[in-house]
Amino acid sequence: MDEFQLIRRYFQPLGAASADVALGIGDDCALLQVPPGEELAVTTDTLVAGRHFPLQTAACDIGWKALAVNLSDLAAMGAMARWVTLALTLPENDAEWLTGFCAGFGALLHASGVALVGGDTTRGPLSITVTALGSAPAGRAMRRSGAQPGDLVCVTGALGDAALALRRLGEPDLPPALRERLDRPQPRLAAGLTLRQYAHAAIDISDGLAGDLGHLLDASGVGAELEAASLPQSYAFARHAMPPAERTALQLHGGDDYELCVCLPPDRLEAAQGRLDVPLTAVGRIVAEPGLRLTGADGVTMPIPPHGYRHFT
Amino acid sequence: MDEFQLIRRYFQPLGAASADVALGIGDDCALLQVPPGEELAVTTDTLVAGRHFPLQTAACDIGWKALAVNLSDLAAMGAMARWVTLALTLPENDAEWLTGFCAGFGALLHASGVALVGGDTTRGPLSITVTALGSAPAGRAMRRSGAQPGDLVCVTGALGDAALALRRLGEPDLPPALRERLDRPQPRLAAGLTLRQYAHAAIDISDGLAGDLGHLLDASGVGAELEAASLPQSYAFARHAMPPAERTALQLHGGDDYELCVCLPPDRLEAAQGRLDVPLTAVGRIVAEPGLRLTGADGVTMPIPPHGYRHFT
Asked: I need a labelling partner for A266 at 20 to 30 A (CA). Which of A160, B93, B200, B290 fits?
């Protein structure tokens, strides 16, 4: 099977018809219709085997995750997810692996109402680059730069699950709920669309809350004070016995949460919460003084350095 | 240096301000303004070291080529090139390599009036995925599927240079003009915009004329008859002593030309030629009977199998 047959067999079936796709997979470019009055939102992310996912990760989970991490960036802008391209580099043409990969990728495409409109398949060390395209009404997308002193810092869902799952990987009693959070992150697309109407600023949490919130604070020229006791925990995370400092470290610096962090005025919190399909928890407050500080369970406030996951260090 | 510093040092300077970029590098997504009445054209291509370019290729040439092969796809649709994202996977943070890569990538960005609007930098085996975004008036982009019996098959520029350069790589007397054609392909963007007004169908020649024209014929449900004597040769290519069959094979099946192949009615050829910045040569004719046939210098007509470069075979 050459790459053209491979595209026809595995990827063309994922390129479902959509009213905003004038031309899908199979020509030099896809042709797409951005709704009038909307801006195009574009993001791209690469997943490398052994770096962004453990080598033993199931193909279907890799497919899901490669798409999820990109859709999460659209969610963070409050953009409607519309189209993706997939550039897949594979060591060999492995039918079982490809079938699995496409099942995971396709499941999230379908769940998100997103169309696969193009891509490229090459031979080489396993690596997946997805480019996700969406749209938002002109001037209305959420940016990192709008946070204001007095805003609440809020996060969707729960923090730390994926980091805990990664640490416990291979343990026979790893709760499936934690493993699911590592392998099948849920891009908060619906939440992003809703939060766009309430938030001053937003970012998605991919490298840990401290690091990603740090980017938002830099972009906004402000600081923040968080409370360790407020950081939302899932049931499976809360049940796992850990010293408090370790718990907080996983929630602040662990990666792969793919939740949204948004900054909004306190008087909008309740209205936003009432319209979301996920919990929204206030975990701190934006202040004028730069830097990120955390008040621990012991009531002591300490500066926390932003150290999310970084390549090349 | 971590990846954020790396982006600031090397890539953010390439993200030149452009009126259609509402938000460039540095947030979760870029925000872009597609002109009213235009469709978005999207394409993505990956270059893997040792597969899409020889391992000893200079970093600046890799940067140029990674962008060129994607812009060539926009050219083939007759789209205006507007924006690109760059996903770069690197074995190490090598300042000299990055400086060279960005010089080549940046030179073509500048020459093409295209803005770098986002990307991703990860550590791993060298691989470059570019997603190129452009636009064309709705319904006016050139597709592969419109060729009609009676159309002339035309190609821009000359064929076979890059394939000859690749074969002679390392020879001390390799003419620089051939090497330039391998390392610095020129995406035919201006030609594509012009040809959009004349052509029924188009494709870019990346895997060899026979293979790529084959895709166009399949999409259009037609066949074609080519003449070996008509295939355009550069001066450097024509000067190189070769048996006629070998010459034709390089021109038909050699890759990396990045010229355009277009099908247009004979009475439009002269007008199109007069408005182009590159030569446009008629090399054959579209016929109703499927398949691709070639009349050699000896006057004998033979079917030719499409075999461009294929991964996974």
From this structure: A160
Tens-digit pLDDT profile for chain B (313 aa)? 677 787 788 888 887 678 899 999 989 999 999 999 999 999 999 999 888 888 889 999 999 999 999 999 999 999 999 999 999 999 988 899 999 999 999 999 999 999 999 999 999 989 999 999 999 999 999 999 999 999 999 999 999 999 999 999 889 999 999 999 999 999 999 999 999 999 999 999 999 999 999 999 999 999 999 999 999 999 999 999 999 989 999 999 999 999 999 999 999 999 999 999 999 999 999 999 999 999 987 889 999 876 644 444 4
Q: Could you state, in order of their start, the residue ranges of all structural domains in chain B? A: 3-137, 152-303
Report the amino acid identity of residue A311: H
**Is A253 within 8 Å of A211 (Cβ atoms)?**
yes
* Cα–Cα distance measured from residue A160 to residue A200, given in angstroms and rounded to the nearest whole number: 25
Quick check: helix, strand or coil at residue A257? coil
Contact B122 A51 (CB under 8 A): yes
Give the C-alpha separation, A61 to A72, whole Å: 16
Q: Rounded distance, CA B222 to CA B216, Å?
A: 9
Question: Which residue matches tokens 């350069």?
Answer: B165
Q: Which of A34, A51, A143 sits opposite B124 (nearest CB)?
A: A51
CB atoms within 10 A of CB A133: 29
Architecture of the domain delimited by A3-137: 2-Layer Sandwich (3.30)
Q: What share of chain B is helix, strand, coil (3-state, %, to 5)?
A: 35, 30, 35
The torsion defined by the Cα of B170, B173, B174 and B175, in degrees rounded to 10, comes to 160
Q: Which of B3, B118, B144 sits opposite A310 (nearest CB)?
A: B3
The CA distance from A162 to the nearest CA of chain B, in Å, is 20
Which residues in chain A touch residue B311, judged by CB atoms under 8 angstroms apart?
A: 2-3, 121-123
What band does A309 get if pLDDT is binned at 50, 70 and 90?
very low
Q: How far is CA A104 from CA A100, A108, B16, B29, B220, in A?
A: 6, 7, 37, 24, 33
Rounded Cα–Cα distance for residues B244 and A198 (Å): 70
Best mutation target among B4, B18, B29 (most A Cβ atoms within 10 Å) is B29
* Spatial CA neighbour of A174 closest among A54, A261, A65: A54
Chain A CB contacts of B27 under 8 Å are 77, 143-145, 219
Sheet architecture: strand order including A30-32:
A21-23, A30-32, B38-48, B127-137, B80-90, B115-123
Using the predicted structure, report yes or no on whether residue A254 has a pLDDT greater than 80. Answer: yes
A77/A189 Cα distance (integer angstroms): 9
Phi, psi values for residue B85, rounded to 5°: -115, 155
Question: What is the ipTM metric for this complex?
Answer: 0.92
Q: Please count the other Cβ atoms lying within 10 Å of the Cβ belonging to residue A221.
A: 10
Task: Say if the Cβ atoms of A143 and B23 lie within 8 Å.
Answer: yes
Which fold, A152-303? Phosphoribosyl-aminoimidazole Synthetase; Chain A, domain 2 (3.90.650)
Q: What is the layout of strands, in order, in the sheet containing A127-137?
A: A115-123, A80-90, A127-137, A38-48, B30-32, B21-23
Q: Tokens for A181?
A: 């959070």
